[in-house]
């Protein structure tokens, strides 16, 4: 039986990836941080099916210990401080585990199984920042625009470096924004769908947002974790852009989300200058041609379907109904 270790298993992507790997017959291990409150909401339904280990990307020995305990064939490094605005408030901490944390995981693999453990690094389209090319490809130069983006560039290059220095099987997935009903509520898609649901149910009267003009290439998280797994099943380790190849403004996201519950967004949305970032990433649109050709990967959920399913899930949640399973694609 194949064993996989996921850092960031309590996050959006970690929860979908754990489900995918269980479906594929893996023994799944996950790293969790100690907290005074358990933040295991996204993986509650996997209790008893996956093995949890306490460790922290800030602590080298804890990672080595977990690597010994779980003895994985594949390691997926998804843990990070992943919210861009927080990276301006906590730039040092963001760098500590979003960049140096990657080296700690790679060092543990180098010590314990450089020839047999395959490694996936969660790189990000935020690395393209002030974009130097449209659409963005694997070889588009990086120009990060936040401490988070800068930290991810380090994580990306140290992954490439361990592949080239030690011939380790290390892949970097440059993933564009991907969302779901499990997305943290601070990110714009979920903030909007949750806000729309609250307004529809009379729980709120307005939605405060920052820049409506920025454009993102948004896909569904359940589709994107498939690409991560596919990368580690290839004969050669490589880096891939994972994206839909479509871009939409935040304004279009807002229009669609309010329309899903028959409301006019202009009556409820207020622009709040405090939510505008010190440096913005104006336009992201990825070219997934390499992932499609080499991995046979293709996204299955469209932007419109994604927004509608997220709004419906938030309305249902706020009405006290359970959040639908991620495979309920019918919306
Ligand atoms: P997320 O929901 O914010 O999850 C982040 C995970 O990292 C959580 O499980 C968190 O644990 C864990 N973590 C944070 N700091 C840690 C530390 N010091 N030690 C151990 N674990 C720690 O993020 P996501 O959306 O699933 O994204 C997964 C990865 O993909 C991240 O690296 C993100 O930067 C990257 N990425 C995401 C996207 C996207 O659109 N979603 C796009 C490109 C790249 P707690 O639950 O304890 O906080
Ligand atoms: O949803 P966001 O916060 O995501 P962002 O900054 O693009 O980062 C996400 O995607 C990256 C991949 O490109 C990941 F690496 C990263 O970890 C994270 O998952 O913001 C999207 C856009 C931005 O242009 C922002 O300025 O929405 C704009 N926006 C407008 N009003 C807002 C708001 N964003 C947030 N979070 N909240 C607002 O009120």
From TrEMBL:
EC number: 4.2.1.47
Pfam annotation, one family: GDP_Man_Dehyd
UniProt-listed InterPro entries: GDP_Man_deHydtase, NAD(P)-bd_dom, NAD(P)-bd_dom_sf
GO term, biological process aspect, one: 'de novo' GDP-L-fucose biosynthetic process
Enzyme class: lyase
Domain of life assignment: Bacteria
Name this polypeptide is given: GDP-mannose 4,6-dehydratase
Protein's gene: gmd
């Amino acid at each position: 039986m194949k064993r996989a270790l996921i850092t960031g298993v309590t996050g959006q992507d970690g929860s979908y990836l754990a489900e995918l790997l269980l479906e594929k017959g893996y023994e799944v291990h996950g790293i969790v941080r100690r907290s005074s409150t358990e933040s295991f909401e996204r993986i509650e339904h996997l209790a008893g099916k996956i093995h949890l280990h306490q460790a922290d990307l800030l602590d080298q020995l804890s990672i080595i210990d977990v690597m010994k305990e779980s003895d994985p064939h594949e390691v997926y490094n998804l843990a990070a401080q992943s919210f861009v605005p927080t990276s301006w408030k906590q730039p040092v901490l963001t760098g500590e585990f979003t960049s140096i944390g990657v080296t700690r995981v790679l060092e543990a693999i180098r010590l314990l199984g450089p020839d047999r453990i395959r490694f996936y690094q969660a790189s990000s389209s935020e690395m393209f920042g002030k974009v130097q090319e449209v659409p963005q490809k694997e070889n588009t130069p990086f120009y990060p625009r936040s401490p988070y983006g800068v930290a991810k560039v380090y994580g990306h290059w140290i992954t490439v470096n361990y592949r080239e220095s030690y011939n380790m099987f290390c892949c970097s997935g440059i993933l564009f924004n991907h969302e779901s009903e499990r997305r943290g509520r601070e990110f714009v898609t979920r903030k909007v769908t949750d806000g729309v649901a609250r307004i529809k149910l009379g729980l709120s009267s307005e939605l405060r947002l920052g820049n409506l003009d920025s454009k993102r290439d948004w896909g569904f998280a359940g589709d994107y974790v498939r690409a991560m797994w596919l990368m580690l099943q290839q004969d050669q380790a490589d880096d891939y852009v994972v994206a839909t190849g479509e871009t939409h403004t935040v304004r279009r996201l807002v229009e669609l989300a309010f329309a899903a519950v028959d409301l006019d967004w202009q009556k409820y949305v207020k622009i709040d200058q405090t939510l505008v970032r010190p440096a913005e990433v104006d336009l992201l649109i990825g070219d997934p041609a390499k992932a499609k050709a080499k991995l046979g990967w293709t996204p299955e959920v469209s932007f419109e379907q994604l927004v509608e399913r997220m709004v419906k899930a938030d309305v249902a949640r706020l009405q006290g109904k359970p959040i639908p399973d991620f495979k309920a694609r019918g919306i």
